[in-house]
Design goal:
Length: 102
């Protein structure tokens, strides 16, 4: 008889309070993923701006170091490619979720 009562307490962890906890966890997870995406876009923008500044400095004759110019351009290019690849994967996942039938 005691075993049955102790088994009932196992179901108490699935009470209404755990539903709100699950929602909070989902919201926190979404917020962290969204913030990571925003940070990725901001970082890509920063690399692109740095490459443009290096190009302008080289064009104006303020610097003659082509090595730094190529590094800045390559960082911007790789960052943009990575951002586009992540975006494509997110869109593909979204389309796959939308095609699920319940």
């Amino acid at each position: 008889m005691i075993n049955i009562v102790s088994g009932i307490t196992e179901f108490s962890k699935y009470s209404v309070g755990s539903v709100t906890s699950a929602e909070q966890n989902r919201n926190a997870t979404f917020e962290s993923v969204f913030q990571a995406a925003v940070n990725l876009v901001n970082e890509t923008n920063n690399y692109s701006n740095a490459a443009e500044e290096a190009e302008m400095a080289y064009a104006l004759g303020l610097t003659d170091n082509t090595h730094d110019l190529q590094i800045a351009q390559q960082k911007a290019n790789i960052s943009l490619q990575y951002t586009v690849a992540v975006r494509n994967q997110v869109i593909e996942a979204y389309k796959e979720i939308m095609n699920l039938q319940f």
